[in-house]
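Deliverable D4.2, example record:
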Amino acid sequence: MVHSEAGNLRISTASRETKQLAWITGANGLIGNYLIQTASKFAPAWRVRALTRDQLDLLDFNAVRSEFQKDRPQLVIHCAAVSSVAAAQANPELARRVNVELTGFLAGLAADVAFVFFSTDLVFDGRRGNYAETDLANPLHAYGETKLAAERIVLKNPRHLVVRTSLNGGTSRAGDRAFNEELRLRWQAGRDMTLFTDEFRCPIPAVETARAVWELAGKNCNGLFHVAGAEKLSRWQIGQLLAARWPQLNPKITPGSAGDFPGPSRAPDTSLDISKVQKTLDTPLPGLCEWLAANPGESF
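Output generated by the structure prediction step:
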């Protein structure tokens, strides 16, 4: 029997004795929360400890080391991050501390066990799209730079795994972490949204990301994998899909160009080639259109 207590998933004594422990950092974030919620379905062999900021300050390295030595997890899935371009640009020192130094510290603690690090399609400059794992990365901003630096640290250990993903959608605890939640909030407030017709990503429901990561971990996969949706869509196309899903919100969208964006330079096409992971997974990753059509009743 499972119940929630102080940010952890507690499992009966009999089950705990037969299951290995997985740490999941950033458990209150979008992907971290989906990993927690889907563990019983996609990873029944594991018991999980959901690490949240209020439970353990990950930047207190001494405290983290003490907890790691006490728990001795056999798997660490590291989701915690400064996870947006704007946040990293606003505070590049914090972005480096969290995205690079913390990742290196955790990877060092987990040197002899499985470790999964989440990176981003924004390590690419977006000049051509359909990037494979072997393509040269060239980030345009601090967020992508810190993620790429962390990738290189993690990949020095042949047991460890880096997952590059794209826009993830779903329902977050905060209600504003996913791209679909941002759109919904704007439309609920009666605001128009300008969405770029010339900026492309491979959006994916976070539940599919969680499924894929649990499977990759279960198969002891290592190295670098692209985990994203199976189709390339512009932000404008994504908006049209979600507007059709929520007609009751009277959604308003206006087409625009990324070239007119007043902030940092934007990568026009960071779509990912996911053929490597598709050959590895028992159930291939879907495109967003396919997933939405197959899950009309899902909260998204």
